[in-house]
Structure formats: structure tokens, C-alpha cells
């Protein structure tokens, strides 16, 4: 359950610039990731968890261990991973291929050098570094 002060933080972070227009998806990413960080900080480590997609794909056990600790209850990791694998294989590429794309960084092949340059010139470098994405700009 959200605390009232957390809702205020969320409203301030996500709505303070509601009249602004974003010039690119990079600006949206900067704004929302900073907003999620502020919200998680406001809620505290026992109420919120910010998780990278890559971490869930590459090391789901670590994610579930952290989530179980935060929730202080048991979760059926096997059931969740089974459902996730089933969904990924039906609607996506599957976990094994996702791990290959992440570890090989082949997802970058979809972007032109100019697109990557634009991203790296406009993205919040401190956010990129805190989530381990800075190497995508090297």
C-alpha cells in the first residue's frame, strides 16, 4: 500500500512537468527513470524495488531472493519462471535468446550510429552508469 507522502512524491516527480512536451524518447527515459528512483527512495527498500530487465532475465533467482526478502513471504519461483518461460516462448524470443542478445549486446545492431550518438549525447549519464548501461555509449 502506498503511503500518502509517497503519492505526493510520485505526483511531484511524474506530474511536475505535465505541461512539458518531450522532444525524444531519451527525455522520457531520463524523466521516468529519475522518477522511479525517487519513488523507490521515498517508499524505502521494504516497499519498493527497481529491477533491470537484464537482471531478471540473466539471474532470476537473485531477483526472486531479493523480492522474497522484501515481501517477507515465500514465492513460487519455479511456478513464476515456468509461466514466464512459457509466455516468452509464445510471445517473445525466449530466455536463452534474450540472454544471448544481452550478453552480446546485439540489441544495439538495430540502431544506426547516429541514433546511438544522439542517445549518448542526450541521456542522463549518471542514470546510465547507475544501471550499468554506460558501456552502450562507448
List the helices and strands and how they pair.
Layout: H1 4-15, H2 25-43, H3 53-58, H4 60-71, H5 77-91, H6 95-104, H7 113-122, H8 125-130
Helix pairs in contact: 1-2
The H-and-E topology, N to C, reads as HHHHHHHH
Beta-strand residue percentage: under 5%
Overall shape: it is globular
User: What is the mean pLDDT?
Assistant: 80
Number of domains: 3
Number of helices: 8
Topology, number of strands? 0
Q: Uncertain runs with pLDDT below 50, 5 residues or more?
A: none
Q: For the record, give the distance between the C-alpha atoms at the N and C termini, rounded to a whole number.
A: 41 Å
- State Rg: 17 Å
Helix content: 55-70%
SSE class: mainly alpha
Taking the sheet with the most strands, its summary is: none
Amino acid at each position: 500500500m502506498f503511503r500518502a507522502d509517497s503519492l505526493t512524491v510520485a505526483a511531484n516527480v511524474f506530474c511536475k512537468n505535465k505541461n512539458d512536451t518531450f522532444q525524444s524518447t531519451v527525455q522520457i527515459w531520463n524523466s521516468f527513470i529519475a522518477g522511479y528512483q525517487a519513488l523507490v527512495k521515498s517508499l524505502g527498500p521494504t516497499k519498493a524495488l527497481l529491477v533491470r530487465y537484464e537482471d531478471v532475465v540473466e539471474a532470476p533467482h537473485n531477483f526472486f531472493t531479493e523480492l522474497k526478502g522484501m515481501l517477507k513471504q515465500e514465492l513460487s519461483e519455479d511456478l513464476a519462471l515456468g509461466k514466464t518461460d512459457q509466455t516468452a516462448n509464445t510471445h517473445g524470443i525466449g530466455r536463452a535468446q534474450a540472454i544471448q542478445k544481452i550478453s552480446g549486446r546485439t540489441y544495439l545492431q538495430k540502431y544506426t550510429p547516429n541514433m546511438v550518438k544522439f542517445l549518448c549525447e542526450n541521456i542522463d549519464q549518471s542514470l546510465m552508469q547507475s544501471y550499468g548501461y554506460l558501456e552502450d555509449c562507448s
